[in-house]
Design a protein that fits this description.
Layout lengths: L2 E7 L3 H12 L4 E5 L22 H13 L4 E5 L2 E7 L2 E6 L4 E9 L3 E2 L16 E2 L2 H8 L3 E5 L5 H8 L4 E5 L11 H6 L3 E3 L3 E5 L7 E4 L4 E3 L2 E3 L5 E2 L3 H5 L3 E4 L2 E4 L12 E3 L10 H26 L1
Parallel strand pairs: 1-2, 1-6, 2-3, 6-19, 8-15, 9-10, 9-15, 10-11
Antiparallel strand pairs: 4-5, 5-6, 7-16, 12-13, 13-14, 17-18
Helix pairs in contact: 1-2, 1-7
The structure holds flavin-adenine dinucleotide.
């Protein structure tokens, strides 16, 4: 069976950034990718140095083409179902029953975004229902925008996104902000709406208004939502990795070198970061790739 220096599950911003470090060290890398990057719902990516406004898919296609030029890099488009083995000999099995073996394993599998269960949200995700103002807030162009409360930090969140428009904070069943937040909300001109949302409405993926359960319609151009992210899939759990809570959900626990507590297993990108975007995922992938390379060398020195 063909064994690689590194198996990388997830061939997006983090996984490909790790791969290029290893490729440049002439290490044998196998990238296994299901082709569902987190930002696939958005037409363009923003806030990425020298790539502002490009489609995320184009950035990834360029990265993949550049990596493919390295003789020691291989790609398989597939979904990995199981991960077993130990440091020096990991075994991945995909949904078709194919096995892949490698000495080290990097999980760059991203997160699962769980959207609020409100009619009209899912079909507008990444277009007019957004989570990151730095990614897509500028393109809204100002005007009325909404924020769906996520609980105790909603007032601060509303105060932040007020730089991108005139904010209405929809509490939608969450407690209204405490009195102590009133000066912030007043200063940032945030309106608070305590009637629950019935649906988001507008043509196609545009958002014209939010219909409340009492029938009123509040005009907004976009709705920001906070997410509760979980690492995608079960590979980290299968391998026995630990997890940490963050304000935005749960991540795979890693040290400064992106090593998990399981020997030979690394995790990188959104799956192992408290703050997430393309640049941070790519940088995290570089850390993981370099660390994994150092670990390969250390093993070889010990083996003699
Ligand atoms: C709607 C939206 C818009 C965004 N816009 C921006 C933006 O404009 N600018 C910005 O900087 N950031 C943006 N982000 C954030 C950005 O998408 C993420 O930070 C980035 O994609 C994280 O990269 P990653 O490589 O860690 O994970 P991902 O990009 O999510 O990639 C994970 C990869 O792993 C694969 N995978 C998962 N499990 C398996 C498995 N079992 N087997 C094989 N493959 C697997 C997936 O198919 C996927 O290809 C946006 C996010 C969202 C949700």
């Amino acid at each position: 069976m063909n064994s690689h220096d590194a198996l990388i599950v997830g061939g997006s911003y983090a996984g490909l950034s790790a791969a290029i470090m290893l490729a440049r060290a002439r290490r044998r890398v196998l990238i296994l990718d299901a082709g569902s990057p987190r930002n696939r719902f958005a037409a363009h990516s923003h806030g990425v140095l020298a790539q502002d406004g490009r489609a995320g898919s184009e950035i990834l296609a360029d990265a993949r083409a550049q990596l493919a030029a390295y003789a020691t890099v291989e790609f398989v488009d597939t979904t990995i179902r199981t991960a077993t083995g130990r440091d020096g000999d990991f075994v991945l099995t995909d949904t078709r029953g194919h096995e892949f073996r490698g000495r080290k394993l990097l999980l760059a599998t991203g997160v699962t975004d769980t959207l609020p269960d409100i009619p009209g949200v899912a079909e507008r995700w990444g277009r007019t229902v957004l989570h990151c103002p730095y990614c897509h807030g500028y393109e809204i162009g100002g005007g009325p925008i909404g924020l769906l409360s996520s609980g105790p930090t909603a007032a601060q969140h509303a105060g932040l996104i007020a730089d991108w428009g005139d904010v209405t904070l929809f509490t939608h069943g969450q407690p209204a902000p405490e009195d102590e937040h009133a000066p912030l909300l007043r200063r940032r001109k945030v309106a608070v709406e305590t009637t629950a949302i019935a649906a988001l409405e507008g043509d196609g993926d545009t958002l014209e208004h939010i219909r409340l359960q009492d029938g009123r319609r509040i005009v907004v151009r976009a709705l920001f939502v906070a997410l509760n992210n979980q690492p995608a899939g079960t590979l980290a759990a299968q391998l026995g990795c630990a997890f940490d809570p963050t304000p935005a959900g749960t991540i795979i626990r890693t040290d400064a070198n992106k090593a998990t507590g399981i020997a030979g297993v690394y995790a990188t990108g959104d799956a192992a970061l408290a703050r997430t975007n393309i640049t941070l995922a790519a940088a995290d992938g570089v850390v993981a790739g370099v660390s994994l390379h150092h670990a390969l060398i250390a093993d070889e020195v010990v083996a003699g």
